[in-house]
Design goal:
By secondary structure, the protein is of the alpha+beta class. It is 19% helix and 44% strand. It has two helices and seven strands. The protein is elongated, with a radius of gyration of 17 Å.
Length: 117
Amino acid sequence: MPRLLALVVLLALPLTAQAQFASYCSGGVVADQFDTRVTPGATTRATYSVVLRNTQSAPRRVLVNVTASVLDRPNGAPISISPGQRLTVSLGYQTILPGTQALRGEGLANVTRVSCV
């Protein structure tokens, strides 16, 4: 029984550690969630977004950039985030061709750049 309990605890640890995907601006802004919505159809489309949260007591201005080949990416204009605010930012969309997959989780985090201005 103790072995089983230890195994359950060890398996749960990585899941907890992955809850926050990314931290930006020296921890002043965190990505609470990267989201992928896939809409099937004649042309399957994946729509991407990120939930950013300002962890500071002062407003933050950020620039969001996506390095992957997506359409309708953020336009490079600064985005203001109030203290403690959670803000969903659209990252764009892709048409998913047969044999390819949508970006998800860590893959989406890896192509998303956030910088403070």
